[in-house]
Amino acid sequence: MNERIVLGLGGTVDYEIDWDDDVVQALAEEYGIRADELTRTAPVTTERDLVVALLAFLADGAGGERFASSSRIVEEFAQRFPRRITLGGTGVRAGYALAVHGLAAVQHLVSIDDHVRRLLPAGTEYVSSATADSTDPHLIVQFPRGARVRLGDRLLVAPHPNRVIFANDPPNRELLLAEELGGVLADAGVFLVSGFNSIQDEAVLADRLETLKRHLAALPADADVIYEDAGFHLPVLQDRARAALLGCVDVVSMNEDELQALLGHRLDLLAPDAVVEALSAAATLLPGPVLVVHTRHWSAAVGAEAERFRAALLGGVTMASTRYLLGDGITAADYDRVAQLPAQTGGVAVCAAVAARLPAVCTPGLVLETDHPTTIGLGDTFAGGFVSALVRHRA
Q1: Whole-number pLDDT of residue 235
Q2: DSSP state at residue 359
Q3: What are the E-state strand segments in the chain?
Q4: Residue 395's pLDDT is what?
Q5: Which of 90, 213, 217, 314 has the fewest CB atoms within 10 Å, counting from its CB?
Q6: Whole-number Å distance between alpha carbons of 284 and 303
Q7: DSSP letters along 220-255, please?
Q8: Would you say 354 and 274 are in contact if contact means Cβ atoms under 8 Å apart?
Q9: Model confidence over 132-172: pLDDT tens digits?
């Protein structure tokens, strides 16, 4: 089959911020933030709201994405830290992962500016629904394990490294699809779909889903469509997007946070029985496509066709692990070295239970030791590694 790879549906310009205990502590004191008001779900309409939400994520070691009421809030917070300007969005970061093994893709974009033109991976083609240049940056704050902020008598200490995204991005919120998309898909072998999480209007979501289905009709019958879930700005729309896509995609992929949101409860990722029950329940809620769940301890594919994605699952784990350790600019040699690292003992135990009791394949996480982990874009990089290995394995 023709292995044209198409990635979408939107890219972003990102301001990447590294955690600084002192700066965040000073902000918490300046705004008089109390431990009893921490919440991940309240609207972010001021910089104070942003700090409250950020500290709530930090306290749990959780990652997520939140809508900010204006780009001014993002800019106000970002100017307090050194920052790096990078490109984001699942499709774009997946494109960087493909480039590690010399694969190029066609990107579907909804916005464009000089940052995007300059930073897209070499050899990338794109189609875009944008009619003019625009820049609406996403703020991405990554915190290390052990990051700490004191709020009165309570000391918040991050139990895990993670990242939190704040954005106000009208083009991605509208997610207009380019009319050229169907033509691009006509000879595609793989199509990675993501980006509906920024939409905040039910009617807009319904329209974009119907438009996408029309374009999907152009795909060859043997093409694989992979839907990478994400943290929705309006969680009520998440189930609607997934439900609409179940009959159109071959894989639904999500991380541990999205799995727990789907199930409505926390999950001990190292408890084999609990993981088996959770994956079984999630697969029942999402019938049809293979369910892929990627976590820091293990990654699993569940479903009748799961075996077909064994190599892809390992590729996703290895690529994301390589980024976690080495950040941007990773190479095929880096990937090969990381692939030789030992597996996590706890992940091996979970995978044994999953493989024995479910129609599933499971890959344990690797032992990753670094004082400076990269937590930005790991799910996107997993998706890119998954697609890359899928294509390379059947070449």
Answers
A1: 86
A2: S
A3: 4-7, 12-18, 64-67, 83-88, 106-109, 125-128, 138-143, 148-151, 154-157, 162-167, 188-193, 224-228, 251-255, 290-294, 298-302, 360-364
A4: 74
A5: 217
A6: 10
A7: -TT-EEEEE----SSTHHHHHHHHHHTTT-SEEEEE
A8: no
A9: 999 999 999 999 999 999 999 999 999 999 999 999 999 99
Give the span between the Cα atoms of 96 and 378, in whole angstroms.
12
Same domain? For 205 and 157 the reply is no
The structure tokens 């040699």 sit at 333
3-state secondary structure of 135: coil
Whether residue 69 sits in one domain with residue 181:
no
Residue range(s) defining the domain that contains residue 251: 4-13+89-134+170-393
Residue 185 near residue 162 (C-beta atoms within 8 A): no
Angstrom distance (rounded) from CA 48 to CA 15: 19
Rounded Cα distance, 335 and 343, in Å: 15
* 100 shares its domain with 159: no
Looking at the fold, whether 337 and 300 belong to one and the same domain comes out as: yes
Residues of the chain with pLDDT under 70: 1-2
| CATH code for position 67 | 3.30.1110.20
- How confident is the model at residue 132, as a pLDDT? 96
**What pLDDT score does 1 carry?**
42
CA quadruple 249, 187, 114, 95: dihedral sign: positive
Residue labelled with tokens 């309409």: 45
Number of domains in the chain: 2
Q: Omega of the bond prior to 9 within 30 degrees of 0, cis?
A: yes
Tokens standing for 172? Answer: 């991605």
State the pLDDT at residue 238. Answer: 94
Rg of the chain (C-alpha set): 20
The position carrying tokens 């999402």 is 286
